[in-house]
Write a structure and sequence with these properties.
By secondary structure, this protein is mainly alpha-helical. The chain has one domain. About 55% of the residues lie in helices and about 5% in strands. It has eleven helices and two strands. A two-stranded antiparallel ribbon has the order 1-2. The longest helix has about 40 residues. The termini are far apart. The N terminus is likely disordered. Bound molecules: zinc ion. The site of zinc ion has 7 residues, from loops.
Length: about 280
């Protein structure tokens, strides 16, 4: 078990720099995300403002049944997903949500990885990139909400209706194969709505993506974030791996002055942004 300490002036300084009240955290993330794909490399993603905390707070654990030389695709899949998020050209509803839905799947897989926690470096990178990914996603959800707002105003100004397409995955097989096939049975159904009503429904969909639905098996942004929090709490309870550069420091200096795990700093910032989302 580790002992918690509460005197953290340097770390508190870091937290202050990354407060949501100051824009530099998001500026820094989006600035890096806005780089061209060929300019991306691990050091680009490694956010400068958390460099100082890396060595003292990110956790590793000993998982004896995974060989230390085993590799996984977590880091590359997170880089690719970050690049997809960075490259989003449009934030229109609902198409832009699919990219974030895919990102949720990536995050889920990387949280579950049994290989990453086996080494100090991969565990550190896994936790750090997951934080970056969640923070990037929260910024994109926010932008989609703002786009819904501006699209609504635009439609109201020109007195246009908005259209919602309704697709279905549970297709009914036609009784007679050749009838109706020209019309395309998978063609979406449409709902034509006044802009304000369209906005209300569109934001409900985004809300479901972020906060989830009554179906607990369907992943949402917040459920993934909670899973990451639970995982980090588990990692905190485990002994450092053999390759951890400073096991004593790792055991003790893992929490900030509010007793929050430092490895979840970016995830906490993402959560703070979600709290500011306008779903009305
Ligand atoms: Zn992994």
């Amino acid at each position: 078990m580790y002992r918690r300490q509460y005197h953290f002036d340097p770390i508190r300084g870091t937290r202050e720099q990354t407060s949501l009240l100051e824009p530099n955290l998001f500026d820094s993330v989006t600035e890096r995300l806005d780089k061209a794909p060929d300019q991306m490399n691990p050091s680009d993603i490694d956010l400068s403002h958390i460099n100082t905390t890396n060595e003292i707070n990110l956790l590793t654990s000993s998982i004896q049944d995974i060989p230390s030389d085993q590799s996984c695709a977590c880091l590359s899949s997170m880089y690719l997903t970050l690049d997809n998020i960075r490259s989003m050209k449009s934030f229109s509803f609902p198409s832009s949500l699919h990219c974030l839905r895919d990102a949720l799947g990536t995050a889920e897989l990387c949280i579950d990885c049994r290989v990453c926690p086996n080494q100090y470096l991969t565990a550190t990178q896994n936790a750090q990139l997951l934080g970056t990914l969640l923070l990037s996603m929260s910024e994109r959800y926010n932008r989609i909400l703002k786009t819904i707002e501006s699209d609504t105003i635009e439609a109201e100004d020109v007195r246009q209706t908005k259209t919602l397409q309704i697709g279905s995955t549970g297709m009914v097989e036609p009784r007679h194969e050749h009838i109706g096939s020209m019309a395309g049975s998978s063609e979406p159904l449409v709902l034509e709505l006044p802009p304000s009503e369209w906005k209300r429904l569109a934001k409900k969909v985004v809300n479901a993506e972020v906060h989830g639905t009554s179906d607990p098996s369907r992943a949402s942004f917040m459920s993934i974030l909670a899973t990451l929090e639970e995982r980090q709490a588990r990692w905190h309870m485990m002994e450092p791996t053999d390759d951890c550069p400073n096991p004593e420091r790792r055991r003790h200096d893992m929490h900030d002055h509010n007793n929050n795990p430092m490895c979840l700093m970016l995830a906490r910032e993402a959560k703070k942004l979600v709290d500011l989302f306008d779903f009305s």
